[in-house]
Each structure stands twice: as C-alpha cells, then as structure tokens.
Amino acid sequence: MLPTVTWHDTGFAGGFYVKRIEALGYYYAFVNRWMARSPDGINWTWLNSGNPLAPSTTANWFDLAYDAVHGVLVLVGSDGTVGQCIMSADAGDTWGLPNSILPAHVGANRFRAMYVVALASGRLIAVPERVLAAMPQGAAKSDDGGVTWTGITLPAPYDGSAGTRFLYHIATDGVNVVVGFETNVPPGQPIVSQDGGNSWFLSVLPLTLHGVNPQMAAYWPGVGFYLMGEIYTETKSAVWFSADAGSTWSLAFPGTGLWPAPGAIDTEACSLTYAAASPPFLVTGDNSTPQLPASLDGSSWSAFTDALLTDYFYHVAYSPSLNRLVTIGGFTGEIFYGDLSAPTPPPPSGEVCCRDVWLSDHVVQDPCTHICPRIGV
Fold it and tell me: pLDDT tens digit string along 310-337?
C-alpha cells in the first residue's frame, strides 16, 4: 500500500522544475533564469537575490545534476542560440565561470529543454530535447565537471540523418544510461549506453503500435529502469520495465488506460521519480489532472490527491532523509510539500538489512538502517 501524504502549501512561488540533491541537503526549484533553494522543502530563498543567475543571465535553465567526483552542481540550459552550462562549488551560493558552451548541436536555435545526469565516474552527459536534422551528433559529455564538453554521436535516427527527432528524460544507475524519446515512426526504440556513455545502441520496446511516446525515465536501485509514456493511437498510458540495463523491456503496465478512464496520463513536460521511502514507489506528474500518479511496482497505479492540489504538477522530488515530497504547480509556480506517513519500523533485534538509496544521480549504500523492500535488496 502506498503511504499517505499530508500536503501543505509553502506560500512560495518560484519554479517549474524541482530536484532534491540529497548529498548537499537541498531542494532546488528553477525556471527560466531563476533558481530558489530550500533545506527542507518548506522554507525557500532565492539564489543570487532573485536576479538571473550569473555568469549567464540570458539562458533558460532546464536541468540540474550534482557531480560528486568534482564537487560541483551543474546547471544546463539554452539561450536560444547555444547550449550553456554554469557550475557551483558551494551548493548554489555562487555560480562561476567558465560558462561552458556545449557543442553547437546541443541547445541550438531554440528555447527547449535539456537533460543532464552525473555518472559515478564523474562524467556528465547532457541530452537535448530536440535532435536537429543534418546535425552529426545528438548529445554531449564532460569529464571535468562541465568545464569542457565533447559531442556524442547517437545511433540513427537520433543522429540527425532522418530529420528532427525528440529526446526526453534521461536516467542512470551511475554507469548505464537510458534516454526516453518521442516519435511517430515505429518501432519505439529507447537509446541506451551500458559503458558510461562511450557507446550507444537502440533498444526495442515490446510494442508494434505507431506513435509510441515514452518520454519519462527513472531508475529504481536494485530493480531496474522504467520508461513511462503514452501510445498515441490508443490514447492509453503505458509503463515499460527493464531489469538488464535497457537491453530488453517488458510492459509493466499494459496500456489499458489509467485515470481518468479511458484516457491517459498526460506526461508532456513531466518527470518520473523514484522515491526511496518505506515502501519505495514511483511517482510522476500529470499534465491534465491535478494529481501525482504513483505506483509500488509500475504495474498498478493510483494517485496522491488533495484539496490543496488544484494546479497541474509536472515535476516532483523526494528526500529520503526527510521522507518528504515536494512539487510545483505548473501554472502558478506555487511550491507544495507532502510529508509521508510513518515509515516501516526497523527490523527486529538481531536482523540487519541494507538497501540501495538513490542520491543525486548516484547509487550509494544506506548504512543498514532500513528494512529492505522485497525487491531490490
């Protein structure tokens, strides 16, 4: 059974995207050129005094990752001409040079989203939402904390050879990487790397329908990768699951429709998040209904709802140390936090159990303080 959540309105409006960087002990909310930070998801302050983040005051920021190897927060975005990156070595108090310029194919000619993850090796991988036609490459990597970037050539049709293609959220277990996509050209094929971003291949979803759109990706430590999206021709939601680092996929949720029946969850601009609670669960935003769909295993879904939640919520972040969800209204920017019901009691005396906990794009071992879920031990 999913935990119950008690929701509260913080009274602070300040973002569209939200992430929890557990290693630094902060939630971050950001939109366009601005960013706010909170240690608890309740009390928020603007960074840079509410002014556009220096050293780049023209870029729209879309995603954030923490590179623990180099000790930097990395923020990526685009000024409509080139993809940009700024870094912070002090949890966001200051953002300094160099103001990295990503390869021209990343972030070019648009105010579009970008996605970035940090691998356990210290490598950053950035993926643009749109791979442009005739561009020789489709993503970028950095091995020095975002100071310099080199292009990654993705497999066709995401190399620009077949016209413009859309890529979406990226998920990693620290080594393996899975990228969601949107295309009306079958078959549905996620992009996967199993060697830290050095080489890439197309995986195949077990689905023959046209219009596959799995634009949300998440990694559940010890369990596997999830992709969530829609089947356009049936207007149904579907969830795919991989236990072998993206090589093969099965249909975790059969695409027979979620709420409101018989329609689909609208995943456009949303994110899929793994919450290392007790029990652990997946949670996502919904672009059409004021709710936060959630699932204990990806195969059956219900939703967190509340009278306070009247906006549409695209992004949600979870803190295992606080046992708290934070989400942002997509239209108002209002930030809400939800405290989960009490976690499962610790194991009886004499039993010791560990589990992996997802912390800021890295999988680290929790020091034997929690009871293990039945999967992902």
Answer: 888 889 999 999 999 999 998 889 999 9
Tell me how long the chain is: 377
**114: closest CA among 54, 61, 55?**
61
Residue 377 has pLDDT above 50, yes or no: no
- Give me the half-sphere count of Cα atoms (radius 13 Å) on the Cβ side of residue 237: 26
Condensed to tens digits (0 to 9), the pLDDT of residues 36-61 reads 999 999 999 998 877 777 767 777 88
* Structural domains in the chain (count): 1
Global confidence as pTM: 0.85
Give the range of the structural domain holding residue 79, as residue numbers without chain letter.
5-365
Percent of all residues in the chain with a pLDDT value above 70, rounded to a whole number: 74
Task: Report if residue 375 sits inside a domain.
Answer: no
Q: Which amino acid is at 180?
A: G
Q: Does residue 362 contact residue 120 with C-beta atoms inside 8 Å?
A: yes
175 domain residue, yes or no: yes
In a domain, 115, yes or no: yes
Give domain status of residue 301, yes or no: yes
Q: Is the CB of residue 117 less than 8 Å from the CB of residue 65? A: yes
- Taking the C-alpha atoms of residue 118 and residue 358, their distance in angstroms, rounded to an integer, is 13
Residue 276, pLDDT score: 95
Rounded CA-CA distance 36/278 in Å is 28
Q: How many CB atoms lie within 10 A of CB 342?
A: 10
pLDDT, averaged across the chain: 80
How high is the pLDDT of residue 361? 40
The count of other CB atoms within 10 Å of the CB of residue 85 is: 29
The predicted structure's pLDDT at residue 185: 60
Nearest to 24 by CA among 372, 369, 301, 321: 321
- By three-state DSSP, how is residue 50 classified? helix
Amino acid at 294: A
Domain containing residue 170: CATH number: 2.130.10.10
Burial of 63 (0-12, 13-18, 19+ CB in 10 A): buried
